[in-house]
Design brief:
Length: 327
């Protein structure tokens, strides 16, 4: 496993880290044994950074991470999120009182005195035009409740605006073979300001592993079933907002350009790591084997330029028109 600096925090985090949404909820049933097994496999593979949120399984994901931390001596940095407990997303909802309540709940669930990194959880675009909210986050840092803070965004323009606030250390954004715009527009700015980038949904909700089929079945409580058209939250969070059939077709083309000896998922993760502005990819994983495979992508040699050119072509021909200007 290789490590990269995260913003100006002084931390070096694993370039393949762990996304803990699926072990919390909204991805079908994941047993406690599997969830803890996935977390342990991550640490055994060199992962030292975990992304979670207060709402993942209503605190389940955070509590599982607390259990992991109790049984391991390794340094494990945890980024959580706040904001999605609001019944309706408004800037006013990000009040001092609400933020304080959400932070205290996460402190309790994570069983810590200070949150390593708190991210605003995809707030509405308007929020980024409310500097007082970032002032409140500074106050929580001064009070010792947060070590650092950052944002998780839907849109590239939100990311660009967010990093105008000098104490934003990280931006979490969807970046994968199917969502390439952040690299054109945002990455140079983030590098200039030394802001960390967490590449989320790196496997496009599992699509970029190449295992999904036209008739793949998803449980009723899996967002790949209930949010395929954005019924519950931003459609971009499910298969990156790419139509399922279209995604399958593009993956078949990617399959042909993957070097022998590595999996499609490892190729997709290694592609993300080709961008030095990226701090880490945060693939989700529900079982130890998935996590070990994903972490293995950090040890792979750089992708060859022919593969990069071929992937660009697949993106431009099959995907770009449907996603590029939407986020
Ligand atoms: N708004 C936000 O801030 C936000 C939104 C989304 C995600 N995130 C964060 O980003 C993280 C990653 O995104 P994501 O979990 O949505 O999507 P993802 O990482 O693209 O896909 C994860 C899913 O793919 C499947 N998978 C993973 N590794 C695999 C492997 N090696 N082989 C086969 N299947 C594999 C697993 O589901 P199955 O086995 O069921 O297929 C897994 O749950 C999340 O966990 C969360 O921490 C944040």
């Amino acid at each position: 496993m290789k490590y990269r600096p995260l913003g100006r925090t002084g931390w070096n985090v694993s370039e393949v880290s762990f996304g803990a949404w699926a072990i919390g909820g909204a991805w079908g049933e994941v047993s406690e044994d599997d969830a803890l097994g996935a977390l342990r496999a991550a640490i055994d593979s060199g992962v030292n950074f975990i992304d979670t949120a207060d709402v993942y399984g209503d605190g389940r994901s955070e509590r599982l991470i607390a259990r992991l931390k109790k049984e391991r001596k390794d340094e494990i940095i945890v980024a959580t999120k706040a904001g999605r407990r609001l019944p309706k997303q408004t800037s006013e909802g990000y009040s001092r009182h609400n933020l304080s309540t959400w932070i205290d709940d996460s402190l309790r669930n994570l069983a810590v005195g200070t949150i390593d990194l708190l991210q605003l959880h995809c707030p509405p675009t308007d929020l980024y035009y409310h500097p007082e909210v970032f002032g409140m986050l500074d106050d929580f840092v001064k009070a010792g409740k947060l070590r650092f803070y950052g944002v998780s965004v839907e849109r590239v323009e939100e990311a660009i605006k967010a990093i105008e606030y000098p104490n934003v250390q990280s931006v979490q954004i969807i970046f994968n073979c199917f969502r390439q715009r952040p690299a054109d527009v945002f990455f140079p700015l983030a590098k200039q300001r030394q802001v960390g980038i967490l590449a989320r949904v790196p496997l496009s909700s599992g699509m970029l592993t190449g295992k999904l089929r036209r008739d793949s079945h998803f449980a009723a409580d899996d967002h790949r079933n209930f949010n395929r058209h954005g019924e519950a939250f931003d459609v971009g969070e499910t298969f990156s907002g790419v139509d399922y059939e279209r995604g399958l077709q593009a993956v078949e083309e990617i399959r042909r350009i993957v070097p022998s000896g590595i999996t499609i998922g490892q190729f997709a993760l290694r592609w993300i790591l080709m961008f030095d502005a990226v701090t880490c990819a945060i693939p989700g994983g529900k079982r130890p084997e998935q996590v070990s495979e994903n972490c293995g992508s950090s040890d792979l040699p750089p992708l060859r330029s022919e593969a990069l050119v071929a992937l660009k072509r697949i993106y431009e021909e099959k995907i770009k028109e449907f996603v590029h200007q939407r986020w």
